From TrEMBL:
One of its GO terms (molecular function) is iron ion binding. It is found in: Cell inner membrane. This is Lipopolysaccharide assembly protein B. It holds the Pfam family Zn_ribbon_LapB. Modulates cellular lipopolysaccharide (LPS) levels by regulating LpxC, which is involved in lipid A biosynthesis. May act by modulating the proteolytic activity of FtsH towards LpxC. May also coordinate assembly of proteins involved in LPS synthesis at the plasma membrane. Residues 349-375 form the LapB rubredoxin metal binding domain. Fe cation binds at residues 351, 354, 365, 368. Keywords: Cell inner membrane, Cell membrane, Iron, Membrane, Metal-binding, Repeat, TPR repeat, Transmembrane, Transmembrane helix. Belongs to the LapB family. One of its GO terms (biological process) is lipopolysaccharide metabolic process. It is a single-pass membrane protein. Coiled coil: none annotated. PANTHER family: LIPOPOLYSACCHARIDE ASSEMBLY PROTEIN B, TPR REPEAT-CONTAINING PROTEIN PA4667.
Amino acid sequence: MEFELQWLLIGLPIAFALGWLGSRLDLRQVRREQRDAPKAYFKGLNLLLNEQQDKAIDAFIEAVQNDPDTTELHFALGNLFRRRGEFERAVRVHQHLLGRADLGETERDRAQYALAQDFMKAGLFDRAEEAYRALLGTPFDTEARLALLNLYERSRDWHAAAEVAAVLEHNGIGSFGQRMAHHWCELALEADARQNTEEADKALAHARKAAPQAPRPLLIAGQRLARQGQPAQALAIWNELRARDIPAFALIGEDYVNAARACGQTEAARQALQEAYARSPSLDLLRARAALDGHELSADPALLQHLEKKPTLGAAAAMLQRPLSQWDEPAAQAVRVAVGRAAQPLQRYRCAACGFEAQRHFWQCPGCLSWDSFPPERIEEL
């Protein structure tokens, strides 16, 4: 009995010591693993901040290999591949994440969004559309709809673009009325090209409803009426446009003149053009008024005053078309000012390495410090 008690007293401390030692060894191993993974991660982050993307990718790959279950490392690696233009590798990383059964719903949506961005950047628009549509109704719903809107506009799918924009506006994301008006205007132009007048009328009605103050629906509506042989109705529409947006009205100045001549309203049109020019002077309005009076813009007496107020190359070019017998010192001075003003941005030296521009020549670029990167010729001479 004394023998067993003796061994028991000796064995208990030994067992405790062995257990403690084993736990310490396991704890050291866990700590070592936890220390190694962040070390690789922070190494990659440091390289990324120093714009060493190749080495950063290698560090992140090492971190992912040490801990394949770390989703953040996968996202970082996929984003790096996308930034470098390695879209196929980015797609593989994000598809691998989506294929994991243990991925939570939030992380799955995030991976789906990253995958959609990969497809978009790679120019795979059909797959990008499918990936973005899979995000509708998720926390990434707004981002997906905005991306789909840009995608549909790029592919000229105006019906789909208008539908997405309407949903975004209904959800309170912002005001998309002007954008929807452009979508419906594009549809109206397409319908007119197919000679589908009824569909074009409906599209323009939708455009005006989406953005009642938008100038483009009025501009197109007037042009359609003029082509249909209704110049008086076209003038009425364009007068409404003139009251709202004179710069947009200036775009159809010549059409306005032709419609006024067709229906015998030249005097009213002249008054309208003069009032519009007084409120917002532009060369287009001046050219339309000259056409209404039956002479070229170069012969218009108001051209010199316009050139003095707005010394642009367009006005100077019109002035140069005048006969030499009509030139005087004020006209010459106005042209000199306009040409000199337009030439200033071109009379600079530009660094071939970074694009830095300066009025004088440098042997060493002040921007990127490169030597001999400034060609001795100015921009206009290159």
